[in-house]
Amino acid sequence: MGFRRCKNLRPPYKVPGLHWYFPKIRLMNPDPRPARVSLRDIARKIGVSHVTVSLALRDHPRISEAMRLKIRQEADEMGYRPDPMLTALAHYRKGKSGKPISASIGWINAWQNPTDLRKHKEFDLYWKGAAATAEKFGYRLEEFQLGGDFKPQRLHQILSTRGIRGLLLPPQGRQPDWEDFPWGDYSVVRFGRSLQSPRTHLVTADQVANTMLAFEEMRKRGYRRIGFVTDETDLRQNGHLFEGGYLTAQRLVDESERLPVFVMNYFPAAQRKNALTAWLKEHKADAIFTNLAELQPMLRSMGVKIPADVGLAVTTLLDTTVDAGIDQHPEEIGRVGFLMLNSLINDGSRGIPNIFRQILVEGSWVDGNSLSDRNAV
User: Fold this and answer.
1) Looking at domain 207-326+365-376, what is its CATH homologous superfamily?
2) pLDDT tens digits for 201-258?
3) pTM to 2 decimals?
4) Beta bridge partners of residue 314, listed in sequence order
5) At what angle do helices 50-57 and 39-46 cross, to 10 degrees?
6) C-alpha 79: how far from its chain's center?
7) Which residues face 104 on adjacent strands?
8) Pick from 284, 220, 239: which is nearest to 257 by CA?
9) What kind of fold does domain 39-82 have according to CATH?
């Protein structure tokens, strides 16, 4: 049975015979909230322009320290919170239009011979990744060399005069003498763990995960007695996390297939070849994973054929002729380093942090001729 069309209905839509009415609908706000505090609201309260407020909240050096503090305190008291949708829109517009370069980020080179830094392909890619990403955000990455007669205080004078608030610290060939450099004036991110001071937030490769990945990939290719060769001259710098990943990976295999780590610097230089030969013979290693670029020529000088006698893979494929191992994605590490620094600048976070952060970038396995697939034989 269908409904008949009712003609000439008028509000309140009373249907003859049914005595039924549509209820009246009243629009209500079940969660009344105060209007969002804007930059202009803060500006009116203090008596400055909204541009000044915007720059102050972004900790821009054009605004005096006293005014920045005053604006931040007023913003907190008024309950100001950034609008995430407007922030996203602003980033979108900047990305579409191309943001002009408006500020610089410092890249500090304290190598004794400054040209040596970017001769390392990995470090050069840190630079390229950071520089390209900085440009997208309106920054220029600039190198400042520290060495000889160029002292840390002189560096600080130049940086502060230029209004540079953010610093990237690449790995250094030596531990610099920073003297009394005022780290509290800067947001700082370092690459890797080799630079022990200052202890700022860092971005680096995930050495533990990368080693476990390499161990698994080498086993997939038919290797069962996989050794790790490293140098423990400075455990904070050379291989301790690679070694940790290797020892963890070994726990997942039968005990009969576990090999002890061969530590190169445990032996005098003149005895290392003989010690390595004895280690290979005793433990019958069929593959080696290493973070030492000099291992490949050493093995060849010992008469070891790669990969016929021993397969070889490395922790990073750059700065070596070994072609099997881990791609640590150094350009991505550089990109993430700048993104971390940019977040610190925007948050007004400066100096040596009380709570230390690390961002780890996982690598990828790359096949190569130095580690043939024994399953295919």
Assistant:
1) Response regulator (3.40.50.2300)
2) 999 999 999 999 999 999 999 999 999 999 987 665 555 899 999 999 999 999 999 9
3) 0.78
4) 290, 325
5) 110
6) 32
7) 140
8) 284
9) 434 Repressor (Amino-terminal Domain) (1.10.260)
